[in-house]
Each structure stands twice: as C-alpha cells, then as structure tokens.
Specification:
The structure is a single chain. β5, α2 and β6 form a beta-alpha-beta unit. The chain folds into three domains: 277 residues, Metallo-beta-lactamase, Chain A, CATH 3.60.15.10; 118 residues, 2-Layer Sandwich (Nonspecific Lipid-transfer Protein, Chain A); 41 residues. The strands form four sheets. Strands 7-6-5-3-2-1-17-18 form an eight-stranded mixed β-sheet, with helices on one face. Strands 8-9-10-11-12-14-16 form a seven-stranded mixed β-sheet, covered by helices on one side. It is 30% helix and 23% strand. The protein is globular and about 65 Å long. α8 crosses α9. The longest helix is centred in the last third of the chain and has 20 residues. It is α/β, with parallel strands linked by helices.
C-alpha cells in the first residue's frame, strides 16, 4: 500500500507512507493485568512485520494493553512518542530503561513523513488521544479516553478533514473493575450487560464528533486466568458492535481493516481468532493462600495513607490476603464507609511496588465489596481516579500536589476545562436523582448527546 493505515490487535493502528511509519499502542506479545488479559485475535505476520519496521511508536497511556513492556522490547530501536502527561512518569521510566523518547507538544501538529502528520492531546485523566492525518484523511484515535474537555477542539479538526475515522473504546464495560461482591459474598451482576446495545452508543459518538466512519477499537481482549475467566461473559465480540448501530451520517466499519488513503478503498483484515487457554493464577505468581508479612502490611498502609483525598472520603480500606484481613484506618472515629478488597499477595505487592493499582482493578480477579453509601459510579469519582490516575501516574498525592496538577491542565485550555467541569457536575447531579436506567436520566442523556452533536 502506497499510503494508508491498518487497524489490528487491541488498540493498534499502523500508518504507511510508502513504508510503515507509525504504530500506536503496540500490544504484540505477553499477557496483561497480571496475566488476566490476552488477545481476542492474533496479529497476522504481515501486520507484525510492518509494526516492527515502523520508525515511531506512540503510547497513549500506561495500561499494559497499551504500554506493554514485553512488546516494547521488540521495538527497542524505535522513537517512542508520548502525550505531554503531567508528572511525565512514562517518559521518565522509559528513558531510564534506555528508550529514545519524545514528548509531543500538546495540540501541535508534528510531521513524521511526507504525507503523515500527528497531533496529540493529553488530559487530566492521564489519557492521551492522537489525531493522525494520512494524506488528508483523519484518524481520530481516542483509544480508552473519554472527553475531558477536548471534544470541541477535535470536532473542529474533524470538520476540516476530507474523511474522518473514529477509533474508540466501546463495549460492555469490562475494561474497568466489574468484580463487585455484596456483603454476603455473592458476585453482583455488572451494570452493563449483553442486552445493552453497543452499536447505538458508537453511533452517538460518531454523531458527536462528526466522523464519516466508526471502527471498533481498544476492546479486543479476552480473560484467561481461572479466577477472571468469568468476565468473558462481558467482553465484546466484533459482531456486537453492529447491534443497534443506526446512523444517517456515519458508517460502521469492521474492527480490523486496511484503508487506502490514496484510492479511498477499505479492505477487511480477517485475523485468526485466538483459542483461549485457561491458566491457574499460580502460573503468574499468584497463590491465593499466601499471606502478607509485617513489612508488606506497612508498605500497603503507607501507599494508601499518602493519598490525602482518600482520608477525606473514606473511613477505611480492608485487604483480605490469604484469608487474613488487614484494615487501613483512614478515619479516627467513625468507620461507616470503606472498601474491602480480596486479592492474592504477589500481584497486590507488585501493584504497590510499581504503583499500578489500576492493573488490579481492571484485571477483574480481585474481589471488591463496598461498605456504606456509594453512588452508582461506585469507585468513581473518589477512589480510582485519585489512586490510579492522579497519584500513581500523575505523581499527585497530597492536596498541594493535586492543586498544581489540575492547574497545569486547566491552563492548557481554560474555557474547555471549565465547560467540562460543568458537564461533569451536572451529570453527577442527575445521577443523584435516579439510576442510569431511569426515564429522567435517559431523557437528559438524549438531550445532552443531541446538544453535543450540534
């Protein structure tokens, strides 16, 4: 192909300008999330060879299905391109390992070949999006990112393009913690179930951004640990995206495609579906019977107690490891609201050591029980973002560090940031009045999506 792109793997785009030039989020080998995730489809040899021949590799964020250490070892000689994330954790870690790293200036076009240029946006959720102009055709690679105030900027760029493609995480919600249990030890049915229409949501996103095409993306995984295999009931098959997709302005393309940006021709790639082998957690170093020692308990407590926001919102955290409970007291008196986690020792302490607690949540083998009053978003907005996004990745753990953290993002686009904060607070106010299944919430959601698409 003279000039164009492929979509393959979990969240990978390969861009060509006579030769392979750019690959995004190359998860090529190895498992993710402590062995819990594997690929839904294998990457064909043709695409694998092209990935290895690319000069540049762009990494959106730190989740291991996007930043895969095993995969990056295969791309050691490449220039790694990164969003300008506050804290620069990924940059610092990769440079310490000897990689050649370049941080892309926010919202600035960078030419990487004669007919390919890219523009990167980093947001306060430690997500990164990439706009890729290939011979005048625009790829809007949102991967896992939800709008954090940048959607109006992206829509303006889309309007200026000849043809635009939206690539975005969709599905039934398993790319987050869904392994919740009630106080009697019974697993709770995840909010998002197979009966929901993924296609309808994708059509709404395409209308919001104004893209001609939508490509299912960033959700091509399966579970393979015996303690997380249950979650395969909530993974999204490539055909699930067709259900409910109806649009007068956009077309749903297959998940794996080759698009010729000179002739405007699309060709479907049919990678082989991976046969899932179920592994024992011990294959990944996790023995559920192992207990924490005194030093590890101290490390665990210290990790969470340095995150100041937790002490303002929760009374306690409880970790059951090897059948033994360890309680981290965040409040001095009352103990009404807290979170209990049951998790194997090895993966827990690895997550604490390397500050990747989100990997435990998304792996969906750790069991989570909520105590006290929680909203419908459960671990949001007070636990997951403050632990996994702002503290682990953004290096903002104290009140003062958080103030500097949000101020840095606010300065990049003050008006967009303010508008986004108003939207977030309005949504939370509506959620206080009813569930996401309520008539009120659905009516408000339809109005909101209609207004954003104008």
């Amino acid at each position: 192909m003279e000039v164009g792109f492929d979509t393959i793997g979990n969240a990978t785009v390969i861009c060509y300008d006579r030769i392979p030039v750019l690959v995004t989020d190359p998860w090529l080998t190895g498992a993710a999330y402590f062995g819990s995730w594997t690929f839904s489809h294998d990457i064909p040899d043709e695409q694998m060879d092209a990935i290895k021949a690319c000069e540049y590799a762009w990494i959106s964020h730190g989740h291991p299905d996007h930043l895969s250490p095993d995969s990056l070892r295969l791309l050691r000689a490449k220039t790694i391109l990164l969003p300008d994330h506050r804290g620069n954790r990924i940059r610092d870690d990769l440079q310490a390992l000897g990689y050649k790293v370049r941080v892309l200036e926010n919202k600035v076009w960078t030419k990487i070949s004669d007919r390919i240029r890219i523009l990167c946006i980093a947001d306060y959720n430690q997500d990164g999006i990439l706009l890729i102009d290939v011979n005048g055709r625009l790829i809007v690679n949102l991967n896992d990112a939800g709008d954090r105030g940048w959607s109006f900027f992206v829509k303006r760029v889309v309007k200026q393009s000849k043809v635009a493609f939206l690539l975005k995480l969709g599905g039934f919600g398993d790319a987050d913690m869904i392994n919740f249990f009630d106080k009697d030890g019974a697993r709770q049915t995840p909010f998002v179930a197979k009966s929901d229409s993924v296609g309808e949501a994708m059509a709404i996103e395409a209308a919001i951004y104004g893209t001609k095409y939508v490509v299912p993306f960033s959700s091509m995984h399966k579970y393979q640990r015996s303690d997380s295999i249950w979650a395969n009931d909530y993974t999204t098959e490539v055909d699930d995206y067709k259900a409910g997709f109806s649009s007068k302005s956009s077309e749903l393309l297959p998940a794996f495609i080759r698009y010729d940006c000179e002739k405007d021709l699309v060709e479907e790639i049919n990678p082989p579906r991976r046969v899932i082998t179920v592994f024992d957690p011990k294959d990944f170093g996790d023995d559920w019977s192992e207990q924490l020692d005194a030093t590890e308990m101290t490390q665990l407590s210290g990790y969470f107690k340095t995150i100041s926001h937790l002490q303002e919102r929760f009374d306690f955290l409880k970790f059951r490891v090897g059948g033994r409970d360890h309680v981290i007291e965040l409040a001095k008196k009352r103990f009404h609201k807290g979170i209990a986690f049951e998790v194997p020792r090895s993966s827990l302490m690895t997550a604490i050591k390397y500050e990747v607690f989100d990997d435990l949540l998304i792996g969906n083998f750790m069991k989570t029980t909520l105590h006290g009053e929680f909203g419908q978003e459960r671990l949001y907005p007070d636990f997951t973002p403050y632990v996994a996004k702002y503290a682990d990745n953004g290096k903002a753990r104290t009140k003062e560090e958080l103030e500097h953290y949000f101020e840095a993002y606010r300065k990049r686009a003050p008006y967009d940031f303010l508008r986004h904060m108003i939207e977030v607070n309005c949504r939370r106010a509506v959620l206080q009045l009813g569930s996401t299944d309520s008539v009120l919430y659905k009516a408000m959601a339809r109005t909101y999506h209609f207004m954003k698409s104008l």
